[in-house]
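Throughout our pipeline, every protein is held as a single compact record rather than as scattered files. Such a record has a labelled line for the sequence and another for the backbone structure tokens. The remainder of this section carries one protein's record, kept here as part of the documentation:
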Amino acid sequence: MFKAMKQFTDQFGPAGTDTGQLSKDERAKRHAAQKELDDQLKAAPGADRYQTCRYEHEWTYGPLNAIAKEYSVPKQTAFKVINLRTVAQEQAKQVRADTSMSDDQRKEALAAIRNETESAMARVLGQDAAKAYFKRTSWTRQPGK
């Protein structure tokens, strides 16, 4: 399991890192590889193990570890950010797929998701740690991608 996660990180960089500099094609390849990795991990024994593995991978390779250390945030508290991000990305994905919404409604709904997620993360991490997290990641600018 960890070998597959390391291969993904070596090829595409850590999960949760800024992908804003990637081309649309590169982002699509990264997304497909992430989905394949997730499917492999889910197929391993136990959903809890998958979640623990995913959290540890993000802790090891993503920006949360450094931020948690810098702002004295406990590891388990920082893990809550992963859950918040996952929920926000799923909500954003559903909004983007909703063809009944106008562009303005979609933008408004995505902004509301982003604002609520940022507020929730600030409550979990603390305002300063949350600001640092938002600066080091791109997904809050475009949730669901």
